[in-house]
Design brief:
Layout (H helix, E strand, L loop, with lengths): L1 H14 L4 H63 L3 E8 L7 E7 L7 E12 L3 H7 L8 E3 L7 E6 L5 H8 L7 E12 L5 E10 L17 E3 L1 H8 L4 H4 L2
Antiparallel strand pairs: 1-2, 2-5, 3-4, 3-6, 6-7, 7-8
Helix pairs in contact: 1-2
């Protein structure tokens, strides 16, 4: 179309006998029109290139983001498969003191736990009130003692003193409870894994007679729950930064 327009304009100039100045002006106008025509195409091509580059960068970013998400998931799964899982396996009376208890902590994980802290509380409850106490009025049992490590698939016998229930344990062992009363012991384990993460496991046991030992009440307690470092420091009342350096 542009070629036809130029040819027509040239023919008209020659047919009308336009002077050299008029022909020069006409050619300048045609050249300017051609320049504006190709400049418009150049701008359009540049805009298209920018749009395509932006789309390519977006998909590249999403690809990198998805790759990072996949790596994070793989890392988390690896940690879950190998980290420590510490819980209270059994509860017994201490052989040395009538008011103390011994919690056998079991690490069912594939790697050691560099730090374990255990706390218990004991209370006297009626036989039919155990579930209600655990659900609505569970006594606090923050750990007050720590141990250095529990090996992979290993155990730890932690001798602990109830926060305020030391006398309740002693009275129970001497037969001071009624037949409808039970000794309820609740506890908390805070432990660290080799990936410098902290977890909390709660447990509960009850006994109807010192000769019968301890049983677990119905229902499950929270176990292996991740907790932040600030909560560890607050509960244990210590600076846990040295623990992170292990």
């Amino acid at each position: 179309m542009k070629s036809i327009t130029i040819a027509v304009l040239s023919w008209l100039a020659q047919a009308m006998g336009a002077g050299a100045a008029d022909e020069y002006a006409m050619r300048s106008a045609v050249a300017a029109e051609w320049q504006s025509y190709w400049a418009a195409w150049a701008v359009a091509a540049s805009a298209t290139s920018i749009i395509i580059s932006g789309i390519a960068l977006y998909f590249l970013f999403r690809s990198l983001q998805q790759t990072q998400e996949a790596l994070d998931i793989t890392k988390d799964l690896g940690h879950r498969q190998t980290r420590a899982y510490v819980e209270a396996a059994t509860l017994t009376f201490s052989m040395d003191d009538d008011g103390d208890l011994v919690v056998r902590c079991q690490n069912s994980g594939e790697t050691p736990s560099p730090m374990v802290a255990v706390g218990v509380e004991a209370t006297r409850v009626s036989a039919g009130n155990i579930g209600h106490v655990l659900k609505t009025n569970r006594p606090p049992s923050p750990p007050r003692k720590t141990w250095t490590a529990v090996g992979a698939r290993g155990t730890l016998r932690a001798k602990v003193t109830p926060l305020t229930g030391h006398s309740a344990v002693a009275e129970f062992r001497t037969g001071a409870f009624d037949t409808n009363e039970r000794l309820l012991v609740v506890g908390t384990i805070i432990y660290q894994d080799i990936f410098n993460q902290f977890f909390k496991t709660e447990f509960a046991f009850f006994s109807a007679s010192p000769k019968d030992g301890f049983l677990r009440p119905n229902g499950l307690s929270a176990a292996y729950r991740p907790i932040p470092l600030q909560e560890v420091e607050s509960v244990l009342q210590l600076d846990s930064r040295p623990l992170l350096q292990n």
